[in-house]
C-alpha cells in the first residue's frame, strides 16, 4: 500500500561524513607529521638515524675505552665523547639504523665500570654523528674515533662475540682443556759434570812413640810430639775425615806445638786413638804423633773456664 510516509521497519543509512577542511582553513590546527621510523619504507638511508646516545659513563672515561667496547658491535663505524660540565656523553655511529637499534638494546643497563658500578643508558640520538672522511683534514678537537679507514675501502668490522659468562669453562665441550699446573722440573736440564774431590792423603808412615802415661778415655784427644813447622791444614785434612769428628784447635807455644780434637763420643775418639797412633806428619819433622786422651775434654769446666779454654789450661797436665 502506497503512502507518503516511510515504513517503520525501513533501515535508514547514517548521513555521510563531511569532508575534512583543507590545511590552513580558518578554525583548523596544524598537526606535525609523525617522526620517521628507522628503516621504514619511504625513508632514505641518508636521512635515517644511525647514531645512539650513551650516558652513565664514569667521569674519568677515556675515548679508547668506549671505542674498544663498541668496536665489536655489528655495523659500528665511529664513536665520540662530549662533556657537558663534568658529565661525559657518548655517541656511536653505525652502518644502518637496524644495527644502531640492536646496539642500543645490547648496551642498555650494561655495567661499564665494575668499581663504580656505573651502568649505561642508551637511546637513539636526534641526528647522526658527523664523520670527516678526508684523511688529510682530521679535526683533532672532535676526538673522534672511527672503526676503519673510509678513504680506501668500506669498513668491515669483525663479527660480534658476546663476552663469556663468569663461570669457568675449563673442561666444557667446545673449549680448550685446562693447562696443566706449572712444574719447574718438567723441562730437561742438561747434566752438569761434577768433579769428585781429590782423596785426602793418609799418613805416609808410622813410627813408634813413647806413650806410657795416658788419661781415662773421653771424647777429646791430645796430639803431641808435633814440630814447630807442622802445617795445620795437614792435621785438619787427616782428622776431619775421621768418623765423629767435630772440631780441632792447634796451640803453638814457644818451642812446642800441640793439638786438641773433639769427637762426637768416646767410641769415635777411641778408634782414632788406636788407628792413628804414631802416624807421621810430613811437615812435623819429629817422627810419629803421640795421641792421648785429654785430661780436660771439650765442654768440661776447669777453674771456672769452660769449653776450649778449659782444655788449653790443662795443656801442661797432658
UniProtKB/TrEMBL annotation:
Region (Disordered): 1-45
Compartments where found: Nucleus
Protein's UniProt keywords contain S-adenosyl-L-methionine: no
GO CC annotations on file: nucleus
Biased composition (Pro residues): 17-39
All residue ranges annotated as the RRM domain in the record: 219-296
Domain of life assignment: Eukaryota
This protein's UniProt keywords: Nucleus, RNA-binding
GO molecular function, one term: RNA binding
InterPro entries with a match to the protein in the record: Nucleotide-bd_a/b_plait_sf (IPR012677), RBD_domain_sf (IPR035979), RRM_dom (IPR000504)
Keyword NADP: no
UniProt protein name: RRM domain-containing protein
